[in-house]
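re the bet — no i am not wrong, look at it urself. input seq straight from the record:
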Amino acid sequence: MRVLIVEDEPYLAEAVRDGLRLEAIAADIAGDGDSALALLGVNSYDLAVLDRDIPGPSGDEVARRIVASGSGIPILMLTAADRIDDKASGFGLGADDYLTKPFELRELVLRLRALDRRRAYARPPVREIAGLRLDPFRREVFRDGRYVALTRKQFAVLEVLVAAEGGVVSAEELLERAWDENADPLTNAVRITVSALRKRLGEPWIIATVPGVGYRIDTGTGPGTNTDPGRDATTPGMTHG
């Protein structure tokens, strides 16, 4: 189990991290909202322990973004406030559990293990198509048995394409499902990410472009071309020159 601890009190954060490690639970520390979001963007975590009162983007905002990302990471919120209204608002933001400071490390460990068990029961299915094997729970991708390291955004795009089972997914839909609600509809981020994803997956290119429509996993049948990783379907607001 790997846990992200988001806590701005260094002594408490380090004590929790060291205590979790004694329980064979790997843990990273973020002291503010920006650091938390940066770590979430590059690492895969099983759980997040999130203090609501942190500098930068607040714990509440970090929780919103975790939920919006679709990662399914369970959130255990920490707070000094013990009022039922505070807990209700935390659960409304997407928290899966709540712990009031001060707390015993043993109770935190028990709650984390319970959340991890619940997550295991709700694991999404592994998907396989055209030599690809995508495990949403472990955030792993294999092509023809070879592990492929992807960024979180590349994984999110591939997950949408694989779920379509060879069907065409428009650039607009990819932008809606793999980016957050603040994504600029005029951006060329979809084209750039798909191009980079193709290269990560290697040749022969497995993501086909359906000109003017979108993208699809190439199963050997259907429309589209996958011969040029640099030319992609029209992205919202963008045209090929």
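see?? The chain has two domains: 2-121, 127-217. told u. also The chain has eight helices and twelve strands. so pay up
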